[in-house]
Design brief:
Layout: H1 5-14, E1 28-33, H2 39-52, E2 59-62, H3 71-85, E3 89-94, H4 100-112, E4 117-121, H5 142-152, E5 156-161, H6 172-184, E6 189-194, H7 198-210, E7 216-221, H8 227-237, H9 243-249, H10 256-276, E8 281-285, H11 291-299, H12 307-318
Parallel strand pairs: 1-2, 1-8, 2-3, 3-4, 4-5, 5-6, 6-7, 7-8
Helix pairs in contact: 5-6, 10-11
């Protein structure tokens, strides 16, 4: 029997080295959580934090609700992670519906709680779909917020980036200009919105390089634990869900175990492609669940380390 070129390529791929064989575990990882709304949700969050902590993330971040709606819960969650888990924690902070004085108060409270890293975002309006309107006494943009925070204290600052372009941007080029303004204002790195095709990140990385952006670009990874929720998130932020991915999850709505397996496989494969393209930093949007992020990190070669060693590694990363 004569095999076609496509069949030969498939056979070569199938008999090649296992996709995740031999990875040295040199990737740096970080995790995002959101502040819990109830005691039960707090217990779930804390279980996730304690499960992921032995992987020695270089930091974890905690989100900040639209219009500052989770201000107190974000602060208490970050403070607890620093105090009880011993992890470097970054607090999200936005411009929405807040004056410069209010943001200064929040930032100073973070500093007093031991927070040295802030994820600075423009933020989404409290009403979904409404346009962003700056507070009359507030910061006009994320770039202005970054500059203001650097004037308050010597925070390490991460900002957001959009491989598939922010929905409010006029075009990809103006979106890149906005990213550069944020980084030039004093941000250390950019963490991307989630995406589902590695080529989207590589094209974005090339475009950033062409703009003269040399800061660290960290891909944001969203393992799909809830398909309907992911479609909603993607619609809000402009991320494309490819047709093949929809097909993979089709029929799994009532099969959570199978859906988890597929979700881990899809995300891990993309991470492996990113790794092959030179990426060594990954930021996982956990949705306060540990199992998918843990599984992907394991496939990337990460292994638990003793608490003392993890703490020492985190201190070295912070330095």
């Amino acid at each position: 029997m004569t095999l076609s070129v496509a069949q030969l390529n498939e056979a070569q791929f199938a008999t090649g080295e296992p996709l995740f064989a031999g990875l040295p575990g040199d990737a740096e990882i970080s995790f995002e959580f959101f502040p819990p709304k109830s005691a039960k949700m707090e217990e779930k969050l804390w279980d996730s934090v304690l499960t992921l902590a032995p992987l020695a993330p270089r930091f974890v971040s905690v989100t900040y609700g639209a219009g500052g709606s989770t201000r107190e819960r974000t602060h208490s969650t970050v403070a607890r992670i620093i105090k009880e888990a011993g992890l470097p924690a970054a607090a999200h902070l936005t411009c929405v519906e807040a004056s410069k004085a209010e943001i200064r108060e929040v930032a100073e409270q973070y500093w007093e709680a031991g927070v040295r890293h802030i994820v600075a975002l423009r933020g989404d309006p409290p009403t979904p779909g409404a346009p962003f309107v700056p507070h009359p006494d507030g910061y006009q943009s994320a770039a202005d917020l970054v500059k203001g925070l650097k004037d308050i204290a010597d925070f390490e600052i991460s900002v957001a980036a959009y491989p598939e372009t922010h929905p409010d941007a006029d075009c990809p080029d103006s979106d890149l200009d906005n990213l550069k303004r944020k980084l030039d204002a004093g941000a250390t790195r950019a963490i991307t919105q989630f995406f589902f095709q590695s080529d989207a990140f590589f094209r974005f990385r090339d475009a950033c390089a062409a703009k003269g952006i040399e800061n660290e670009l960290v891909p944001g990874i969203l393992p799909v634990s809830n398909v309907a929720q992911t479609r909603k998130f993607a619609g809000m932020c402009g991320a494309e869900i490819p047709g093949w991915m929809n097909q993979l999850f089709d029929g799994l709505d009532d099969m959570p175990d199978a859906r988890q397996l597929v979700a881990a496989t899809v995300a891990a494969e993309m991470c492996r492609r990113l790794y092959a393209g030179g990426v060594r930093q990954f930021h996982f949007y956990t949705l306060n669940r540990a199992e998918l992020a843990y599984a992907i990190c394991h496939l990337l070669g990460k292994r638990p380390v003793p608490i003392e060693q993890a703490s020492r590694a985190q201190q070295e990363q912070a330095a």
